[in-house]
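Exercise 7. Given the components listed, write out the predicted structure of the assembled complex. Treat all entries as one system.
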Amino acid sequence: MSNLILLSHGSGGDSTRQLIEKEFLKFLSNPILNELLDSGVFEIPGSSFKMALTTDSYVISPIFFKNGDIGKLSVFGTVNDLCVVGAKPLFLSLGLIIEEGLDINDLRKIINSISEAANEAKVKIITGDTKVVEKNKGDKIFINTTGIGIVESHRDWRDRPVQKGDVVIVSGPIGDHGIYIMLERLSIQTDEEVKSDLANLSEVVLGALDRFDQIKFVRDATRGGVATVLNEISQKYNLTIEVYEEEIPVREWVKNASEVLGIDPIYSANEGKFVMIISQNQAQDLLNYLSLYPLTKDAKIIGYVTDINKPKTYLVTRIGTKRILESLKGDILPRIC
Amino acid sequence: MTNLSVINQLTKIGKIEVEFLVREISQLVSNENYTIMEFCGTHTHEISRYGIRSLLPKSLSLKSGPGCPVCVTAEEDIDYIIQIVEKYDLSVITFGDIVRVPGSKGSLSYLKAKGKEVLVVYSPLESVKIAKNNPNKNYLLIGIGFETTVPTLAYTIKKIVEEDLKNIYYFSLHKLTPPAMKALLDSGEVKLDGIIGPGHVSTILGVKGWQEILKDYKIPFVIMGFEPEDIIWGIYILIQKIKKQEYGVFNTYGRSVSFEGNLVAQELVNEVFYISEANWRGFGIIPNSGLELKPQYQYLDAKKIFLLNEPIKVRKTGCRCGEVLRGVIEPYQCPLFAKVCTPDNPKGPCMVSSEGSCAAYYLYERN
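Answer.
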């Protein structure tokens, strides 16, 4: 059974991780890749600064959605992967795989939003590639972007040790993008407020890294959701994290829709939210700083690092019980009842 | 007891009320052994997800029942589908986790990875559009779900007829819950003192839909909502009924469940389907527990049109889903649990479905 690649291998959860660890790292291992961060960070010989390189492919449906499209996503997604490792995004490449028959107006719309998003994120597209594949050999359009940025050493958090008592912060209400896309696919009519949270995080994240030298971990919580990021942290640093259900911000529409669909927003994808670990003495100041930006004004402390040498993640529920919080397993599908 | 009447009137139960109810439940149970079963997979999932078991007295045992449509799908039915899909070159349209349920020769996901077209849609209505847009392909729509989901599928069938589509066929895996409840109680395999009645199914069936089946049994059946507070409140009521020996159907989920249920949905289902027997994993054939297409829709019925080469053999596997579904064993008592059977590599449907009790135990109650 396990000799074929299944869709769940691309879900961003455990199956993806297993594929990376068992099949890719086995052959491609090197100190930079082995860190498994959102971007690879490397030194330039003879220079005082480091650089970060990341790549991401965007294969989404629908390609147009509320508050974005595949073009905007392909810029912000890659920019976000750079900034969370402390890199100031500079340049992007743009690879387009277009399915025969795509409406030229759709392509124009996508390129236009790539241009707008690149301006907003202050990056330039400096190289690109276009391929057209036969009808039914693709799904309208696939985009790959690779991004490169500079990591100034004061923004490089990688060597700061995470300790017991450190604080876990999420930058705002979670689960919007994943739940919204699922509602779209179900063709459910939704209100104005129901939309993707797609956003450029670089300004706020880099600003935070400039001001707070005790930020010890940053990751944008995309596929697999906040639960998967928390598990990645606890595994990577071999420590226990406890988060509190009541403290995790979730928008009312996300809460309602996720109940109907039977999907926990903590596993649902975000495209404009990050998780940060910071030492306790800087946590409140960081929250004050984040509250100045519309994008992160609802940031909250959701939990703590409670132990070391035990890689576990726990959730304290709103009725006061405590249980393990696993990373995403398999695909997210609405329940059948 | 003044506190209780206050709680009774509360629309929202908070943490303090939960603590209070938990204490009341403990006092009522007072170390006597009681076994109650949650019939519905969503209850199973929420009980695990909110660690409700850990709040209750040890002598009160919560068993999971067969209320998960994916879980109760028989392996023979998966094999049947895979066999006709290959033999007649059909493209599959289905929704939810059913694609990951292993048959004797792999799952539909596996078939898909091998190159067969298997479309997982979010809503069955999408199948109408797909079949219409691809007239040169033949599609098999797998209809799965209990009373809650059947109305959407019945509507889909009517749309297929309306659009006069000739390239889509229907494979019903639908099951009805009250007959399974009866089969479970009749078997006497597990002695139950009370039942947590399913909330979703009851929104369609109403209180009335359960009364006929349960009238001959001396057991309280309390319909509950799915919020952890609903479940704690419902269990409190259920324990009271057990102690007072009050039997029958009680509704604590009045905000969604009425006495009559959803009559429009019931009528729609009756228009399209007739009641038949069905094969339940762990139970075998249960009379009057399935739905098949009525004669006027039989030209869409895959079971009537596509014939098997050979009858499907029942295979013996190490998976003990069947016993888990009957409440005979707990998921962790299966030797495969969390060792070779995990959500990423499930050996049986109770680990596949998010509503399955093995998946719920694996995700939330493993330490």
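Discussion: The two ends of chain B are 37 Å apart (CA to CA). Chain B touches chain A through 59 residues (CB under 8 Å).
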